Structures are given as C-alpha cells and as structure tokens.
Amino acid sequence: MLQLIRVIWALVILVNLSAVMWFILGTTANFQRGIDLVSTVVLVYFGIPSILLIILSIILLFKRWPSSSSWSIIGVFIIIICMLSLSSILFKNVNTSGWLTENITTDTLQTTADGQYEYQLELINLFQKNSYARLYLKNVSTGEEIRIPLEIPVTNIRGLSEGKVNYWIALEATSKRDVFILYTTSKFPLPNEKYEIDVKIGKAMKVQ
C-alpha cells in the first residue's frame, strides 16, 4: 500500500513539474519575451508554491515517507491534492500566443488605388525577440491571399499607439503591373521605411 502511494506521489510530482515548466515556456513564449504582470502574479501565488511542494515531496520520498503512520499518509494525500490543484491552475493560465500560435497585430485594411488589392501590415509576435513584419494582400477579384515578408526592424519598436483606425503603411502603384511601392507612415513607430513590392513573385525589396 505504501509503495503504491509513493508511485502515485511520484507521478503527481511529474505532473506538477510539467505544469510549472509549461507555464514558464508559455508565458515567455519559449523565452522570446518577458513575463507580464498577470503572469508574474500567477507565478508567485501558484508557481513558487508548486516548486516548494515539489522539493519537499522529493526530500520526503528519499526519506521513505510516508511511514505506516496514518497521519503521514493523510499528510501525503493533502500534499498530492494541493499539487494537483496548483497544476490545474498553471495549465489553465498558460498563454501559447506568440509561441505555438502567432500573435498578430494589424493596421486597418485598405484598398489599392486601382481597386485590385486589399492590404494591411501584419506585425507578428510584437515586442518579442522573434517578431517580424509582413504585408497581407488579397486579390479582390479572385480572393487569393498573399503574405510577403518585410525587412522592417520591428524589434526596435518599443511602443505602438492604436486607435479605432490605423494606417501604418501605404501602397502606391508604379508603371509596372503588380509592382507597388510600400512606405510606412508617420503614424507608425518606424516611419519612412520604403519597399518595392512585386506581387507576382511575392517579394519585397528595400528601397534606399
């Protein structure tokens, strides 16, 4: 009986440890961003107690606890219940956005002057080390969607003001078919960035 309790206890330790690690990975987007205020509170109130219970449990297991005493068995079950409760809270509060799923920030959808394309700027995982930008295009007549990577240094952005309507980029037609000039507006934290967009090959080239 005591051996079975120890096995169950060891499995709960692994579950609790997994919950702590999963929470840290999720809230830091696999260490691509800092922990925000809400996640810090969750970590302090639930993560740290979990770590302390894990350490305590390992020490007690090495000491061949619980003993045959009914009080030690009750104590183990209390610890197990606490660890499972904390694990549940940590798993529920994991944010996988910006890691397992993209966190996308966009400006207001616009249409090119010729009415051929709808477009907007997409900022992926903003304020993270793995952030980047791309141009979203949709052919109005066919519904085809295209996303073209941009070399905008979005990791230099420290803040972004958002209103009900945001125009961070503009596309201007050129003499060539399906070739546009994209530039960032004064409303964007990095204004005056300029790129030549070739829709046909799905490529952007920075214009000096």
Gyration radius (Cα, Å) is 26 Å
The total of helices stands at 3
Through-space gap between termini: 75 Å
Identify the overall geometry.
rod-shaped
Mind describing the biggest β-sheet? 5 strands, antiparallel
Relative strand content? 15-25%
User: Pairing-aware structural class of the strands and helices?
Assistant: alpha+beta
| SSE sequence, one letter per element | HHHEEEEEEEEE
Task: List unreliable stretches of 5+ residues.
Answer: none
Q: What's the overall average pLDDT, rounded?
A: 93
Summarize the structure in words.
The protein has 208 residues and is of the alpha+beta class. Helices cover 36% and strands 23% of the residues. Strands 1, 2, 3, 4 and 5 form a five-stranded antiparallel sheet that branches. A four-stranded antiparallel sheet has the order 6-7-8-9, with no helix packed on it. Strand 8 (194-198) and strand 9 form a beta hairpin. It starts with a helix and ends with a strand.
Keyword list:
36% helix; 3 helices; five-stranded antiparallel β-sheet; four-stranded antiparallel β-sheet; alpha+beta; single chain; 208 residues
Question: How is this fold's topology laid out?
Answer:
Elements: H1 2-27, H2 37-62, H3 70-92, E1 104-106, E2 110-111, E3 117-124, E4 132-139, E5 145-150, E6 169-173, E7 179-184, E8 194-198, E9 203-206
Helix pairs in contact: 1-2, 1-3, 2-3
Summarize the structure.
With 208 residues, this protein is an alpha+beta fold. It has helices at residues 2-27, 37-62, 70-92; strands at 104-106, 110-111, 117-124, 132-139, 145-150, 169-173, 179-184, 194-198, 203-206. Helix 1 (2-27) runs antiparallel to helix 2 and helix 1 packs parallel to helix 3 (70-92).
